[in-house]
Amino acid sequence: MKNNINKLPEGFLWGGATAANQCEGGYLEGNKGLSTVDVIPIGKDRFPVGVGKLKMIECDENHYYPSHEAIDFYHHYKEDIALFAEMGFKCFRLSLSWARIFPNGDDAQPNEEGLKFYDDVFDECLKHGIEPLVTITHFDVPMNLVKTIGSWRSRKMVGHYERLCEVIFNRYKNKVKYWLTFNEINMLLHLPFIGAGLIFEEGENEEAIKYQAAHNQLIASAKATKIAHAINPEFKIGCMLAAGNTYANTSAPEDVWKSMEKDRENYFFIDVQSRGEYPCYAKKMLERMDINLEMEEEDEKLLKENTVDFISFSYYASRLTSADPKVNAGTEGNVFATLRNPYLKASEWGWQIDPLGLRITMNAMYDRYQKPLFIVENGLGAVDIQDDNGYVEDDYRIEYLREHIKAMKDAVNEDGIELMGYTPWGCIDLVSASTGEMKKRYGFIYVDKDNEGNGTLKRTKKKSFDWYKKVIASNGESLE
Description:
This protein is of the alpha/beta class. The protein has helices at residues 20-23, 46-50, 73-87, 98-101, 112-127, 143-149, 156-171, 192-196, 206-231, 253-275, 280-288, 299-305, 325-328, 355-369, 395-413, 463-473; strands at 13-17, 91-95, 131-137, 178-182, 236-243, 246-248, 310-315, 319-321, 345-346, 352-353, 373-377, 419-422, 445-447, 459-461.
């Protein structure tokens, strides 16, 4: 049966995406506890802290911590959600701050003020006909759990995460249908403290710790899926991957093999969450690395019986790799090291702009999993300059999104991929996770704040705001 050419399905979930740790602020308000992101500063120490090499477990007076206020969504959520509704959002992806609900992570009772805040946010979304898509954990661990048990290196984290899930699934079972267990679960390999609250001591086997933490998160994700489906069978539970296919630098078989290895490094997590077992290549890799995961008797059964309902992912860029160590030594880009692809333009932060790569990535994942996909992050980080009236002519962002939406539509219509929705990243300007900057802007809405924390927090619509409004109203038909 032939699809309507270039049509997206009715009920397609257009919207935008944020994360509590990058937009919420109010970092100790409403009895919220200290979170991992709250101790990650902007500046030269951000990356060492983010990878778990520089131990920072408290805030000090020598650093600026962007998450403490961020864009103050905590006090501006009604205004912001009204702007999302004006754009026509059908869906708003946001995350919960674990430390707002369980300030220490191991509290006897949840924090009612925190639960009430998210009640109010969800009510505001539903008032405007916007479906919340909630990430349970988006680079967010209560600092107390880092200090007391070492965060996700400890199996005890699974129990704390279970309690969080039981509380939120019961509390919001009539308000939230779509849930993601962990944001970009593969990021713990690249930014271990940001992704999983891991801090390494001198001489430790860091790879073994990372993969044990990954196993603990995979078990937690399966338990969350089990709990969710028991509480409300209508819940849809997804996993979340930082995606982007890795191309081979040349047609040399060694380069092709290297690119396959790089893709598997990321797919491994989703293979477990979607297929319910460790793939043979992952078992052999762990064997070669002499890593013996600590597993409990029921782990394999739990993973097999509690796979996710859909696959969500972020896509910003493709990657390029070589088997030649000398060639690969010159990698550039952001968190994911990549060679510069001569066929692609790059953003101001070195991310290579590859719309066709989105279609390639979607096909690779759909072929692999045969489950519905959901693009929950995609966008262009850029320095936006306001004119005298505060307006931003962000045609570069419109062009980026237009070309990626075209590729997304081709994947749906030409390739037959089942796609649930599209929520571009940072629909309102927020703090960059990797750099802590405000000047790296993604939003349709400009927020008056700079890297040093100065500004009025005034919200202003950019040119892309009205463009995206038309895109949504036409269900992706009007892209000019």
